[in-house]
Amino acid sequence: MADKIIYAMYDDDDVLKDGAKKLVAKGIKVAEVFSPFPIHGIDPIIGVKNTRLGIMAFIYGLTGLMLATLGMRFFMITDWPMNIGGKPNESYLDNMLAFVPVTFEFTVLCAAHGMALTYFLRNKTLPGLPASNPDPRTTDDKFVMELRLSQNSQFTETELHDLLKSTGIVELDQRDVK
Amino acid sequence: MEFKITKKANLLTMFLIVFGIVFTGIGVIVETTFHHHGEHLGQRISGNLLIDSFFFFAIGLGALFFLALQYATETGWYASVKRIIEAVAGFLPVGVGLLIVALLTITIQQGAHIYVWMDPQTVAHDELIQGKSAYLNIPFFWIRTLVYLGTYLLFWRGFKTRSLLEDQVGGTDIHFKNYKKAALFLVFFAVFSSTSSWDWIMSIDVHWFSTLFGWYVFAGMWCSTMIVLVTLTLYLKKKGYLPNVNESHIHDLGKWTFATSFLWSYLWFSQFMLIWYANIPEETTYHLTRIKDFKFLYFGMFIINFAFPMLLLMSRDAKRHAGVLTFVGMVVLFGHWVDVYIMVMAGSMGGSAYIGFMEIGLMLLVLGIFIKVVLTNLSKAPLTVKNHPFLDESIHHEI
After folding, report:
1. Is A74 touching B (CB cutoff 8 A)?
2. How far, in whole angstroms, is CA B237 from its chain's centroid?
3. How many angstroms separate the CA atoms of B79 and B384, rounded?
4. B218, B177 in Cβ contact below 8 A?
């Protein structure tokens, strides 16, 4: 489906935030914002939902906890009962205290790596992948707001341009996508 | 906005204090009539005085530490709840008084079988205590105690005066002065929080020692403080007093509660696991007494103080929910009181200790005094600070 994307560039994050507030109040849907750093308070304005990364972190942590428990039980108790300093090695529970640090560390390891990988995958920012930001300057000192024509069908192209220009932009760019 | 103590709150504190006195009275009667003609009476009263005065004094001290931490790190978000921290820290003068009463009661009874190293007859037969007597003797103990308490009070007076002065004059001079004084306080506190817990608590189990004991006691105290702060903030917010406090402040206080419970659990477990692993007789005695006489309370207290905050306060929504925070807070606060109870009682009364009328009574009594003093402090100063350099940041706090 043919669509047109409008990129509006700002040189100040506060101007962008105020602009976004005005546009959204008029019923315009802002598809995305590109910025060199997180803009505080932009999420609720353009309707980005709270991240669910925390839930994934919990699940990854739980996975680590279980893997560590199963692993330690197999390595240290079942496969080859380890006698360290005469500590009981009959059952996992007897020697549980000794495994707590390992279990804790493995939980943290799984949660941290899982979170980082999920974050990269979800944002499509794994090393080597092409950049998805429209302009390299958004990694330096410029801020870009993205509007899609298909999501704002109640406005014409020129109406959107005029509205954007009234919010203090420094550049306007438009691209056709298939 | 000025805080006024409600009639209901006044009634509650009166109720707590009266019930506390009545229960303590019943406890004394029970002890003298039914338990070996009261031969443990002095020990039990002194022990309970120590438990409750230390527990509530530590909450005040934790608030002073937390305030100094905010100053030294030049934090912004806390400015809206600063007066609440100061009100809790304002319990210090009373807490110090109570603690001195408790320690004096013990000293005049030659240790009251709590600090056995104060009893010359015991020391004469105990080589281990003789070896420690250069440090553990009554004059040096009192010098140290007075130095700790004096230092805390001195810093507290300075912070309080400057905070009220800032409301009137503004500028950044006071801020930078607070910054320097707070850094200095933290240096003293780093040493004193360890050594004071050795003196007041660890010397009960006089043959035993642990280098991380100070951090363990300190973490428990910090956690209790955070619970009191978050509950008090929620109470005042509900009464409509704190227009500048939003969900993010509550969330941050909730995070502190969560984090400090973990700190405490981490230290408790570190101490326990290392002693279990090394299995050296002179170290294991500490946990053996606790497992023998207080198995249910000791492990129950640990599981509650660790698992409750972990499971119930992990999610973001729970840390913003007043009901969940208050419920978890109250349970864990009681858990930390039980922690202090075992710290004192296991090494002194051992198997003959139990939570009866006297324990509950003195706890309610000191709790009543604590609430009364903190609410009075709140009503004495405006609840919202003026001219704090980070006040604007705090008002717009959003996480």
Report:
1. no
2. 24
3. 8
4. no
Report strand pairing: A143-148 vs A171-177. Answer: unpaired
CA-based nearest distance B325→chain A, Å: 19
pLDDT in tens, B185-211: 999 999 999 999 999 999 999 999 998
- Give the model confidence (pLDDT) of B147-191 as tens digits: 999 999 999 999 999 999 999 998 899 999 999 999 999 999 999
Q: Give the model confidence (pLDDT) of B14-60 as tens digits.
A: 999 999 999 999 999 888 887 766 678 889 999 999 999 999 999 99
Q: Which residues in chain A are closer than 8 Å to B273, comparing Cβ atoms?
A: 97-98, 100-101
What value of ipTM does the predicted structure carry?
0.81
Location of structure tokens 């103990």: B141
Bin A172: left if φ > 0, else alpha if -120 < ψ < 50, else beta.
beta
Phi, psi of A4 (to 5 degrees): -120, 135
Asked if residues B56 and B95 have their Cβ atoms less than 8 Å apart, the reply is yes
Which residue has 């717009």 as its token pair?
B396
Q: Which residues of A touch B314 (CB under 8 A)?
A: 58
Tell me the residue length of chain A: 178
A100 exposure class (CB count in 10 Å sphere: 0-12, 13-18, 19+)? middle
Q: What residues of B are in contact with residue A101 (Cβ under 8 Å)? A: 273
How many interface pairs between A and B have CB atoms less than 8 angstroms apart? Answer: 19
Pick from A41, A97, A101: CB nearest B276: A97
Residue B325 near residue B250, CB atoms below 8 Å = yes
Quickly list DSSP for A41-105. Answer: THHHHHTPPPP-HHHHHHHHHHHHHHHHHHHHIIIIIIIS---STT---SSTTTTHHHHHHHHHH
Report the alpha-carbon distance of residue B192 to residue B204 in Å, rounded.
18
Does position B255 have pLDDT exceeding 70, yes or no? yes
